[in-house]
Specification:
Layout (H helix, E strand, L loop, with lengths): L7 E6 L5 H12 L2 E3 L1 H11 L3 H5 L8 H7 L19 H18 L2 E4 L3 H4 L6 E7 L2 H12 L3 H23 L11 E4 H4 L1 H12 L1
Parallel strand pairs: 1-3, 1-4, 2-3, 4-5
Length: 206
Amino acid sequence: MKLNSPFVITISRQLGSGGAYIGQQLAQKLNIFYADRKIINEAAKQLSVLEEDLESLEERKRSFWQSFLDSFTFGAPEVYLLPQSVTPTDDELYTTEKEIIERIANERSSVIIGRCSAHILCKHPNHFNIFLHADLSFRIERIRELYNVSEKVALKMITQSDQDRALYNYTYSGQEWTDLRRYDLCMDTGKVGLEKSLELIMKHLE
C-alpha cells in the first residue's frame, strides 16, 4: 500500500443484505467519505438529467429495444417537440460514473457502494473490496420492512435486482458478480447479523 494514497473500501452487495447501512456505518466509524448518492448527483449534473431518472438506470443493462426506444422523443407526428432531456446510454452512464468513482478514490479516503466500483478500482493501491450477501428469507424480510411492501413484491424486487446487477457487472467487468474469489472479504449478513458484520469488518480492517 502507498501511505500517501487515499484508502478506499468498495462494497458490492445483494439487495436486502444491508450494504448501504454497513457502508454508512463504516464511513462514520472511520471518519471517511461515504459515496453513494454523491455519485448519482454528480452523474446527473454531468449528463444534464434528473437524479430520479438516473436511479432507475443504475446497475442495470437495458435491452436493445429499450435503448432504441429511449433514443426517440414521441409526440404528434406533425409536431416536432424539443426533448426536455436525453436519456444517457448504458455506456455513457457507466463511463460517467466510472470517472466520478476514480476521482473520488484519488482525492479522498472513502467507502464506495456498488456500480462496478470493485472492478473499476481493482488497480487502486489502497483498495479493499467487500461482498455482502444473505439468504433469501433475510433479504425479503429486510426489503419488506424498508419499503413497506408485501413478501411477493419484495421477492420480485430482489429477483430483478440480482438479474440486473449480474448482467451489468458482467457487461463491464467480464466477471461474474457473485464470484467470491474477486473480493478481499465476503460476509453473510443474514447469518452474522448487521451489527456483528460491521464489527467483524472493522476488526479485519484494523
